[in-house]
Structures are given as structure tokens and as C-alpha cells.
Amino acid sequence: MQVYEGKAKKVIPLDDGKAIMEFKDDATAFNGEKKAQFRGKGWLNAQISAFLFKVLEENGIKTHFIGIAGDNRLIVERLKMYPVEVVVRNVVAGSLKKRLPLEEGTELPEPIIELYYKDDSLGDPMINHHHAKVLGISEEEIKEMESIALKVNEILRKYFAERGITLVDFKLEFGRNERGEIVLGDEISPDTCRFWDAETGKSLDKDVFRFDKGDLINAYEELYERLTGQAPTRR
Prior knowledge:
Layout (H helix, E strand, L loop, with lengths): L3 E2 L3 E5 L4 E6 L2 E4 L4 E4 L3 H18 L6 E6 L2 E5 L2 E12 L4 H4 L7 E11 L8 E2 L1 H6 L4 H23 L3 E12 L5 E3 L8 E5 L9 H4 L5 H13 L7
Antiparallel strand pairs: 1-2, 2-3, 3-7, 4-5, 6-7, 8-9, 8-11, 9-10, 11-12, 11-13
Helix pairs in contact: 1-6
Pfam families: SAICAR_synt
Protein name: Phosphoribosylaminoimidazole-succinocarboxamide synthase
Enzyme class: ligase
């Protein structure tokens, strides 16, 4: 079986309908133009993703997460992934501030959902429901993914707020399992979300690396500790 390797993860298929998702220490930004390695990043992303998948499962969201398979590895259900990223935005940041006449940090009156086509060669362009239909994704499938994404946002926004963290925005990916269900896949980590300290606005995510805001591992470790209530055990 073919091993898929992306910029920050490897997916190793197993024979029983499962796969190993291995998180790397690599960090990339701006479509791979900026690259670096940070010892311990893979461990932190794997552990944070596992923790958040458990939170979502406990609140009725179906995910591909099965268990932890090692320091930087998760066991997951193998999915047939959709070539679409579903982005939920609660606060103006990142590319949104270039597209709306609103200041960075402005809280949106309601969450905004955006769709992006997963293709590095095209720069992961934003698409709409009509584009998705041309790509073979039905209106019903897109609406179900968007509905799940809003439920995820409701759960995680509250969860992070209780820990003094603002969930600014985040990216989700979905796939179908062998039973035909649309299931949340990929990861939920500071690589794929924006987290700000609710009081100071300090970044606790990959923007620390993107924009040289400080020590990336320190930011990820702080996020891990505030989420789990425990100091990281490995770096």
C-alpha cells in the first residue's frame, strides 16, 4: 500500500481498514516557501490532536481517531478523503483581513465558513458550492461537512474559552469511511488552527513560525499545558 507523505505528516495504511498517522517535526509556511524543523513539534501536534479528537467524540462528533500509537503517531480509521478544506472563522485574521474591510482581531457576528480546494500546485484556491459540484462533491455532502464544522466550532470555542484561549479560526478535512459516513479526519492542532491568548492576543499556533513571533515549541507547549492541565512529558 502506498504511503502518503505531506509537508507535516505521513499516513501509513494498514491491512485492517486502519492507518498510522505520523506527525513530523517539520514546519512549513506560505505554501512551502518557508521551512524549518523543531524537535518535539510532531509529538505535540499528535498529542494535541488526540486530545481534541477525544473532546469532540465525547460531544457526539464522529472522527477517524482510534488511539495513540506512539509518541508522534496516531491510529486512525482509513477514510476516502474529500479534496476540500473547510475553514471556520470567528475572528478577522490571516487572509480574511485582506478580503474584508475589517481590522484584524474584529470578532465576527457569526462564524464564516470558507471552502478551499486541496491542490498545492494551484495554491489551495478558495471555492464555492458550484465549484465543489464540478469537482464531484454534491451539495448535500458540502452542507453536511459545513454543519459538522459549525458543531465542532461550537464545542471547541467554548472549550478553549474556558481555558482563556480564543479560537480564532481553524481548518477541517473530511472523508467517508467504509460504512459511507462522513467523518472528521486529518488533525486538529496549532498547525491547522489559530489560537490567541484571550487577554494578551499572543499567538499559540503556527503564526509564531510564519511571522517570527517567538519560540514555536514554547507556544505549542503552553497550548498543550493549558488544554490538558499537564506539563509536556517529551520534547
